[in-house]
Amino acid sequence: MKELSKKIRNAPKSKIRELFDLAAGRSDVISLGIGQPDFSTPQPAIEGNINALKEKITYYAPTKGIPELLQQLENKLKTVNNIETAWKENIILTNGGSQALSLAFASIFNPGDEIVISSPNFISYFYLSAFFDLRVIEIERKSDFSPDIEKIRDSITEKTKAILINSPNNPTGYSLDMNELQEIVEIVKKHDLYLISDEVYENYLYDNSKHTSPASLKDMFDRTITLNAMSKLYSATGFRLGYVAANKEIINTMEKYHQYTAAGTNHAAQYGFLEALKMDNSFFEEILKSFDERRLLAYNRLNEMGFEVVKPKGAFYIMPKIKDYNITGAEFSKRIMKDQAVAIIPGNIFGSYSEYMLRMSYATQLEKLEEAMNRIEKFVKKL
Ligand SMILES: Cc1ncc(COP(=O)(O)O)c(C=O)c1O
User: What is the percentage of the chain residues whose pLDDT exceeds 90?
Assistant: First the structure.
């Protein structure tokens, strides 16, 4: 048989899946692996979807999405993100944040272009870059996980096409402050770059951290690809709906790619997203409070156990560094699964600078999280 695609074969299968394979058949496993909020999808989203199906909305949707939803997103972008768009020209609906990312990559890059990414960072950025034949310029984050702006500035070459940011961040929990964002924006403008801004965790912010969408800043709308999804705010990862806001030319380019690769997104589900967007976000207040409690529990316990740990400012992940145990994240994660039945993602899947780190998601009930922390403590005492 002739050889299959090198690029895709060379990408590893998801380590997260491997961990679940290790856990298969065991009922005692507590997962700190999953990037999915543990609350129920709000009822209006579910009913919106069901009602659409009852009305036999089972055919192709317009490639960019149904007008009602695009208009609602225009309104959301304006009121929540302070981004001015025209829904007919500047917004496209995607299959989750994941496909919003693929469309971003497909629309602006040519083979050999360079993309600048702070590391550690979300795994898909690295493999999408490989699939689109890009050169990744991976800039190590500082020890508090803030971006190293000096190094980012120094890394720009003739070939740099874009900087990608994800704030609040998976896996580090870092959230950019306004000064950092401004500095990144200045680099983007000075070197005529694009800024890809992955904002899927925009609502998960703690300790008075604020989210600013770079596309709302002066002269940045045309240069910024803002992407977001229904998945994290509405605990609706299975709806597979997300969106991009960008300038007209970028959206037109995305529409072509979308047309020939996916032809659109689930039609009926779009009505669910529409109903979710009409909700007042106060439904999220209690949820955020609960996530904050979990965040502090995880942070305090890991600290007490002797991990070097940065207090997350956003998202629902914490990324402790394994200091004194002389063991890599990969080894730690394999052994703790066998020994204590806790699923933890090794840091090395998030880039080149996190071999001795672990990523834990605290999107799990407080009691379970507490039990997971007890098990981790037992495990590290034996190391
Ligand atoms: C930073 C980041 N961007 C994008 C995504 C993809 O989101 P979706 O599940 O909507 O495809 C995720 C999912 O974990 C993520 O963490």
Answer: 92
